[in-house]
Amino acid sequence: MKALSFVIATAFVILAAPAHAAVEVLACEPEWAALATEIGGALVVAESATTPQQDPHYIQARPSLIAKMRRAALVICTGADLEVGWLPLLLRQAGNGAVQPGQPGNLNAADYVEMLDKPSSVDRSLGDVHPYGNPHIQTDPRNIGKVAAAVADRLAMLDGANAATYKQRYEDFAKRWQAAVERWTTAVAPLKGKQIVTHHKGWAYLENWVGLVEVGNLEPKPGLPPSAAHLAELLNQVKGKEVAVIVRSTYEDAKASEWLGTRTQIPYVVLPHTVGSVPGANDLFGMFDAMVKTLAEIKR
Amino acid sequence: MTFDTTALTIIGPGLVAGVLVLATHVPLGREVLKRGIIFIDLAVAQMAGLGVIAAGTFGLDAHGAAAQAAAFAAALAGGLLLSWTDKRFGKTQEAIIGVSFVLAATGGLLLLANDPHGGEELRDLLVGQILFADVHTLTPAAVLAAVVLASWRLVMRVFGRAGFYLLFAVSVTASVQLVGVYLVFASLMVPALATRSVAKHALAAGYVIGLIGYLAGLLMSAVYDLPTGAVIVWTLTLAGLAAAPLLGRWRGAAA
Fold it and tell me: In which domain, by residue range, is A253 found?
């Protein structure tokens, strides 16, 4: 009986609203939580709804997630339908008016960058094609800089008393980020024009930034698991081509890239798609340091 | 200690969903156990799911009336087919149910082979998203549970064996979309198993076990931040295991 009342009490404490003075930020993906922390510092408490090991297209609802959504003053998601499978349900169930779409407390990162791969027509038979364009915008560091400005503006609007601090912290971040982007751009410059194969169509913005040429995907259509027939076709397709590397993210199964890699002698790597996905990627700077380091080690 | 209503409003809808599922599944589970056709619910639940998936493949909204009708039709067809095989091939009924289950499950896989969200839909069908239950999904489920319970005796008397399969198909179609196949199976079997040797008030005892299981699961999932549906399957089973010897002693004292 004692144990039961402990569980009940703990559940209520965990789900109840703590008296935080800080602005509570719920991000859909770790990179936006990291960005909110860069801009807000101790003024915000930022958490991510998904982990670096999770596919942000799909998550299971847990009570804590609804509780966090209910407390949040600002919700930062990628948007462009990346979270369409769960975010609308979560927003509706939490019933937090301040973070509903269209409110100042709801920020879609995709609204602030130029979208790639916008389809001229959307057909379900083509796979998981997003009508608003490719949503994996965070793999180009210049996009992070653009979203940072939007996050800073939004925090200043929601927490007016600290507006000056957000502005100052943003300017400091923007300066450091600008310098880092220049350093990374120089480091990846020799890779321009190299051909790559990726698991999912999740690296369009990285390719656009570095100047990589995507010659194939391990997935037959976006979102569908690699099939034997498609892999065999891909094998023929890359033969005779100078493909530099096969790229996947941490939440994708290694089997397909290993299969193609061992048959073609093309090296296969994991690139950090978000903060915390590989060792050393502890913040946004670390994420791109790790990404650039892996890319620069590619020999051919 | 803060004791506000936040927690209640988060796990409340899940608890209501649990009560509605238990309302019909505890008595249905007793029938299933009595007839020795344990895997029928897995088969019928999968068929209902197959109906929803098929409706989606043909471009219907999964939560619309047409898809619900498709799910109910599929479950009913499956229920009636199994009722007929029960009569026709009585001894091998359990094996036929098993084969029907794998056919319905792999049929869903085949239909969703070209759907990029197929994996998610299949997972939702199995584990469910009980926390996302709301007024729009709970109201029809409540009406349906009330109709099933109110018409129980009449349907059973008029249609006999087929009546049981009819009630079963209706209940499972609604509950599988609310809480998923795993939880439907646990809600049917665990209370029925734990109370099978209880002579008096067995139904009431089954309801109590089910309620404790759901409540404990919802609270545990809040404390340990685990997926709710899967946790409830475990707490429900633990509640059944804990209750069985208590009920046995109670029966011994009464005898």
Answer: 188-296
